C-alpha cells in the first residue's frame, strides 16, 4: 500500500496524533518506508553528523519478539512497522564520508578540510554524558520529522518511550556506542486518537528572562 496524500504543513501539525490502535491488515512497502526514512533524515543534526540509526521491524516474528520488550503495547503487533530509533555516540567517525559527500554537493574543499579535523577532535574528546545527550537530541529531531512525514503521507504513528532499554539492547544485539532513543509505530489507525490539549503558550513562554 502506497499513500500519495498531499497536504500543507500546518494541517499535518494540527492533525497528527499519537495513535495506539492500528488496522493489522494495512502494510507499508519497504520502498515507501525507505522513502519516509530518507525524508525524515533531512532533519538537522549536530555538525550534520546524522547520528540516527534505524531498525525497521515489520516481520511478524520480529514484532512478536519486540512486543514484550515494549511492555506488550498492542501497536507493536498491529501497526505496519515499528521503527527502533538509535543514536550513535560515535557518529563523528563517519565525518570524512559525510563531508566528502558535502563537497560533491558543492561545499568548497578548503572549507571541508579546515573544519573536519577540528570537529572530529572535538567530538572524540566529548564526555560520555555529552555524547549521549547529543545522540538523544538528534534522535528526537529525526523522530519528530518521521512522524510528520508519516502523517503527510496519510499514515498514523505513535512514539514510545515505554520499553526496556536493556532487553532491547540484548535482543537486537545493539552495540554500546548506539543509544536507544524511542520506538515509533507507523500504520493506519483503526480508531480515533484521544483528544489532545496543550497548555496556553503564555504559561510556557518567557521573554528575555525566566520568570519564577
TrEMBL record:
Domain Nitroreductase: 13-188
PANTHER family: NAD(P)H NITROREDUCTASE YDGI-RELATED, NAD(P)H NITROREDUCTASE YODC-RELATED
Protein family according to the UniProt entry: Belongs to the nitroreductase family.
Coiled coil regions in record: none
Keywords: Oxidoreductase
GO molecular function term, any single one: oxidoreductase activity
CDD domains associated with the record: MhqN-like
Name of the protein described by the UniProt record: Nitroreductase
InterPro entries (alphabetical): Nitroreductase, Nitroreductase-like
